[in-house]
Design a protein that fits this description.
With 185 residues, the protein is mainly alpha-helical. The protein is 51% helix and 11% strand. Helix 3 runs parallel beside helix 5 and helix 4 runs antiparallel to helix 5.
């Protein structure tokens, strides 16, 4: 899975918008949305919120966790802990990217939020690389990866699976096979 596919999945997350138009309930395969009334908040999937925002049909309300003070706490907690801490959303990175790209005017302290999320991301990826390095060095057979997001797993997944595949090939080549001929004379 590549980052675009993870972003596609993130676009199904619900966010709150305040529409400036009226529309009855709409019926979609993924579920019913609305009704839309001017000034009344309504939850919609992120893909629709971005579309409405681009057409200037709504004001977007950032998720509760997308606050500078809360993100500072999350970043500091992540730096303090040796293990991965739970994130406020399984798609925190994708949501931040999309919301800040398309609705930064609706998000207070947008630049600070961008920096805090990037700091948290960098801390988590560094932990993940250290964990993967330790895993490979100790020649473990399995690992437990709690509290990782899909995007984080995808970032190191290819590298880790290739490394484990190479380790397996090296181990099987080092072990003498049943048909191996001795070089004793």
């Amino acid at each position: 899975m590549d980052p675009a596919e993870a972003e596609f999945l993130a676009e199904k997350e619900l966010v709150t918008v305040i529409p400036n138009f009226s529309l009855d309930r709409i019926y979609l395969i993924g579920g019913d949305l609305g009704p839309f009334n001017p000034g009344l908040p309504v939850e919609v999937p992120l893909w629709l919120a971005v579309n409405l925002k681009q057409r200037q049909k709504c004001r977007l309300i950032p998720p509760g966790w997308m606050d500078a003070e809360k993100l500072e706490e999350i970043r500091d907690q992540e730096r303090k802990e040796d293990t991965f801490t739970p994130m406020p959303s399984p798609y925190y990175m994708e949501l931040t990217k999309l919301l800040l790209n398309y609705a930064s005017d609706s998000i207070p302290k947008a630049d600070e939020i961008r920096t805090l999320v990037k700091d948290t991301w960098d801390t988590r990826i560094a932990k993940l690389r250290l964990s993967a390095d330790s895993f490979v060095r100790q020649q473990e057979a399995h690992a437990k990866l709690d509290n990782l997001t899909l995007m984080e797993i995808n970032t190191t997944g290819t590298f880790l699976t290739q490394a484990l595949d190479h380790m397996y090939k090296l181990r099987t080549n080092l072990q003498p096979g049943e048909n191996a001929q001795s070089q004793d004379f």
